[in-house]
Amino acid sequence: MAEISTGQMVRLQRERRGMSTTALATQSGCTPRHIELIEHGKRTPSLPLLREIAKGPGRTHRRAAG
Question: How would you write 1-66 as a 3-class SS string?
Fold first, then answer.
């Protein structure tokens, strides 16, 4: 099985949620450009930012992890 990068996973989850980069950035507290750079492997997100991204709309940190 091929490995998937963090950026690819962020993009996959964003698209599964039907979210734009702008919507995910707003929810996560960063800029749309930062999300784009993460998705293209140009930036590595911090752990706190990954937690915010993982929350998803209306989800809490604990529910996203479990």
Answer: CCCCCHHHHHHHHHHHCCCCHHHHHHHHCCCHHHHHHHHCCCCCCCHHHHHHHHHCCCCCHHHHHC
